[in-house]
Amino acid sequence: MHEASGAGFASGLGAWRQFPGPLTDALAAAIRTAVLDGRITVGTRLPSERSLAVTLRVSRGTVVTALATLRDSGWLHTRHGSGSAIQLPPDVTRRTAPWSTSHGAVLDLTRAVPAAPHTAYLEASRRAVQRSATLLMDAAEPDAGLPRLRELLADRYTREGLPTRPEQILVTSGARAALTLLVDHLADRTRPILVESPTYHGALGILQRHRARLAAVPVTTDGWDAAHLSHTVQAARPKLAYLVPDFHNPTGALMPPELRTTVAGLAGRHDMTVIVDETLRDLDLRVPTAPITHLAGPGVVTIGSTSKLVWGGLRVGWLRADASRVRELQLNPLQARLSPPPLEQLIACELLSDPHEMLHDRRDRLRAQRDHLATLLDGAADWSFTVPPGGLCLWLRLHDADATALAARTADLGLNLSAGPAFSADRTLTRYLRIPFTGTSEDLTRAVGVLMQAMGQ
Hints:
By secondary structure, the protein is α/β, with parallel strands linked by helices. 42% of the residues lie in helices and 14% in strands.
């Protein structure tokens, strides 16, 4: 903690008098904004009220009232004899959706991403820095990943019933980085890539930029059509398949064990590599949770990341494959560009060493928000949905409305939503909207109100 000088603190506020409203409100708003922008750091001890008043050229009463507003809303902590220090309030640090989602006039629900577990992440970062001295002794050139992180991930797979050795793990800068590397290394332009419809739009972007031909198989909130999937593999002969069997994005479906066995068999018989995206695997919202069988086999590569369990800003992902394939991928020139910095890997080690409390808290919050959203949407004649057993979003089927047109109307009313065509390789699914339930209950209530207004209810 450091104490700011009056001049330094005032400099961080910038042209604060331009904020609307009375001077007391403008000063409080300017301090909040400066903290969020990083111009005033959390933990900064404020100058005395008298000193601030002189520096800012306002009355002491204006400063006292502005600081009282910040104290009451949780932005300031005061200890007798120690002064006041900047802090972040609970409604910022204990969110499950990023602050930017609802900070401002527009509510943005186009991203199904969680906020960081604030306290756990900061503590993990401090421990990682304390343990980073030995990293500085080496060149830290990109490689397969820190040995400790590869061991943690291998142990995790093994505990879940899929025996894995550290040499079967390749650490990447996120799941999308792992997918990019695999497509670059394995794709065959003469054969298509099998995808689900709908599927994760970020993966679609990677595949489409690779100019791959895509063969789509349908997925609904009820799951996969096994016969259709088998027929498509036999008829289209895809070289690669990209599947999301664990709380599928965006439908939330969970692939049953028998279909996982079928898919692994298809991969072996038809010379097809199946890339299994397990990014959402941890977000099991069933009560009680139950073990999930890995989709595994000689032709299967799994990818995962810390983005949903922890935070998208922690750019650490991985892939699990045969050790020989991991060695091949390390020789790909693209691999060095897709390797995360060592310090981020150390932070991931700290968080993944004992994630149970963090995971329990995240599941509880998401479950409550999912159920709140489902209650708000239930009973309306304009749509239907299935409550997903896990994941981050609800896949809403519109009965008589075009999703793209509806999303345009909600945007005009201050709510951004993603329409179904964004998740389709052929721009179909025009009757669907994806609604994340990562937001607070207040955000979700506001979102459904806008949606009903746009529908004319």
